[in-house]
Amino acid sequence: MRRYRADLHVHTVLSPCAELDMGAFDIVSRCRRERIDIVAVTDHNAAKNCKAVKEAAKESGLEVICGLEVQSSEDIHVICLFPDCDAATAFENWVWSLLPPVKNRPESFGYQLVIDKDNNIIEEVPFLLVQGIDATADETIVQAHKNGGVAVLAHIDRPVYSYVAVLGLIPGNLRVDAVELSGRLTKKEAFLWREKAAGRTIIRSSDAHRLDDIDRGKTTCFLLERPCFEEIAMALRNEAGRRVLWPWE
Amino acid sequence: MKISEILRQLGATVHVTAGLDRDVEVGVVGDLLSFIMGSAPEGAVWVTIQNHVNVAAVAVLKEIPLVLLASGRTPSPELEDHCARESIALASTGLDAFELCGRLYEMGLCGSRRS
Lengths: 249, 115
Fold this sequence. Notes:
The complex is a heterodimer. Chain A is an alpha/beta fold. Chain A contains 8 helices and 11 strands. In chain B, strands 1-5-4-3-2 form a 5-stranded mixed β-sheet.
């Protein structure tokens, strides 16, 4: 068992609110520079750029996890991670079937670019990705599990788009695999949130929308046998010696 | 004003009929539960489109006797159960939150600032 640095919440140029410097190779090289071992690609309601980053990371030593950041009907953000691109795509199909048919206006919201590993633009997603889908956060978590994934409540410390802000508290029986705290929290703030999280696994992520946001200081250390989805899922559930280390130690 | 009278005047669909003879004078509107937890006056009628089960927990915390779901939102079965268990009246209406608050104001209810 050894320590692996993971950032399980990073956007690409597919997210309209992300900067255009979030290309495939660019994310990979920035992660390596920050000595990050595992990165999860989590665009808003979409998984289409996971493949590009995964391919760009080949032989770089960086492990890329396929995921999405779903926005629920209550405007709660849930990070959903999957074993491979196919599972993420199957889940993305479910998400897109529930997305309201509102067109993106790139001049207002930003571009939504699907790219390949060399940052060539393959297509622009025409409908707006940053909207609540027609499923609740609780339903989203159930569906992520059905598709073989894990679900993490995103940035629960924030005043918007967080489970706690919208729904007040996390029900004890909610089958979420972990909760995420923002990388910018101080040690003291994070400690207060740890008490509120009442024993749930806590991770720290960057939620990077531009390259400079990717920062070793906004990651989480995992104790794993190998850097892969299955081991991460075990660590989130604290199984077989795999575990998540407290990020603000 | 009695809760039963408010519900009668609104023509609301009543899902949980607990404590209908209680009096209320204050109202609050909002869908972010953390905001309601922080700002709702105790004993207020709560107008919301949020139908998650946690609504019941927040209502208990703020001693809210009546939750009114606006815009045709119906309660989840879990929310109905919890409200029944905690003796919180629960009703829904096709009126949107703006219209609903207007009607409540006309009935003499007010927001926290004037209470």
